[in-house]
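An example makes the point: we print one protein in full, the chain in one-letter code, the fold tokenised, without further comment:
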Amino acid sequence: MNEKLRDAYKLMLKDYPDILTTKDLRKILNLDSRKVYEIIHKGKIAVIPCGRTIRVAKISVIAYMLDLTIAA
């Protein structure tokens, strides 16, 4: 984990658990379900295989958000 990502992890999304649900992603990213699933299926956020449910590591969401800010 690079230093920038490690620092962001300490500061961002403190109120959320380390493993997130799609419902958490909707709240964090302020998107509807369709868009969250689109982002996941395009591979922009890595998922944790968990049967039929989708789980995402909080660090993956933070990395995704940092990538968006760098690209902008």
Notes: The chain has one domain: 3-71. The chain is about 55% helix and 15% strand. Helices lie at 3-11, 22-29, 33-41, 58-71.
